[in-house]
Amino acid sequence: MSSEAEANADFSVLRYAQCWEDADILLDALNIQPGQTCLSIASAGDNALAMLSRGPARVIALDLNPAQLAALELRVAAYRELSHAELLILIGSSPGNGRERLYRRCRSQLSPSARAFWDARSHDVQRGIGAAGKFERYFAMFRTRILPLVHSQARIERLLAGGTRDQRMEFFKKEWDTWRWRLLFRIFFSRFVMGRLGRDPSFFKYVKGTVADRILDRTRYALTELNPAENPYAQWILTGHHGSALPYALRPQNFECIRAHLDRLEWHGATIEEFLDRQKGSPIDSFNLSDIFEYMSEENYERLLRCVIRAGRSGSRLAYWNMLAIRHRPDSMRERLRPLNEISERLHASDKAFFYSAFVVEEIV
């Protein structure tokens, strides 16, 4: 089975230097048990690494983009070679000097292709590898060129300090949610600008309706109903580092467990369609499918779901995000796949990667 995304999108650049999907809700949804086999879209590697903390026998990370696999490889090398504090500096989560030196300590662990990729990007290494992707540069442009036109640094710091829900609501209403904020947000996060600067334009092929207004609504939710002081994604977007909050895979309490299980992680340069076509051996128990279905027609979405079901077993779970295109289990597959709607809705309500419109959890019957 061929990949629709591969045929339409440009995968020649590092698109994501971080996983912009909340591993906390992912792990809750998948309920990974020791000894299981898991499959994950690789992206930058954070969530595949997070899955290791639950002790599965095998985590298979897939990506058709060699740049994404280079990002994953460098993270794996950093977990092996660096302390937790040094890892945060290399990523850019924490300020610090000597990132090039830290990279040199990791370099021998890399494959020739990953080594060549990062050797050619010393400037990205010096800034922190978590800022090296196209999507992160898009957010950096928002942070440095748009946000200063709307809010002062002091006001940004007050927003990120959080507070009680009532305090957050009052601050947002009185100080943050200005007409200038809404106007510039709608322009910068429009389909046109996001397609040019952030995501590949082909990723909007199946999107209906206004893009910016939907993201604006989710941003409002994240800055009021959720606590920005505990949100690593909001912290990075607004400051360029993780501040008072870290994603799951970068938290100190998870570092040693992930490092101890690195030998259970494998990665392949392949589409999920290609991998599942040749998959043999133990069934897969958990599938982290990122938001890949958003880039597919409904027909190809259903075809890939059937491949996933064949590779799994009764009780295997799928988790995936909808950002702008709506994808849920088709009625034609109701005998094979059960939506776990209560879990989906509960976890989406706490999703710190707030720009997604839905989080979908389903179970093979």
For the CA atoms, what is the radius of gyration?
Answer: 20 Å
Tally of helical segments: 19
Instruction: Tell me roughly what share of residues is in helical segments.
Output: 40-55%
* C-alpha geometry: globular
What is the assembly state of the chains in this entry?
Answer: single chain
Strand order of the largest sheet: 3-2-1-4-5-7-6
Biggest β-sheet strands, sense, barrel: 7 strands, mixed
Tell me briefly what this model is.
This protein has 365 residues and is of the alpha/beta class. 48% of the residues lie in helices and 10% in strands. It is globular.
Features:
alpha/beta, 365 residues, globular, 7 strands, 7-stranded mixed β-sheet
Describe the structure in your own words:
The chain is α/β, with parallel strands linked by helices. The chain has a domain at 134-239. The protein is built from 19 helices and seven strands. It has helices at residues 4-8, 23-30, 46-52, 66-81, 84-91, 99-107, 112-119, 122-127, 134-146, 153-160, 165-176, 179-188, 191-197, 211-224, 232-239, 252-260, 272-278, 298-311, 341-348; strands at 37-41, 58-63, 265-269, 286-288, 317-322, 337-339, 358-364. Strands 3-2-1-4-5-7-6 form a seven-stranded mixed sheet. Strand 4, helix 18 and strand 5 form a beta-alpha-beta unit. Helix 4 (66-81) packs across helix 6 (99-107), helix 4 (66-81) crosses helix 7 (112-119) and helix 5 (84-91) crosses helix 6. The protein is globular and about 55 Å long. The two termini are 23 Å apart. The relative contact order is 0.17. The model has no long low-confidence stretch (mean pLDDT 92).
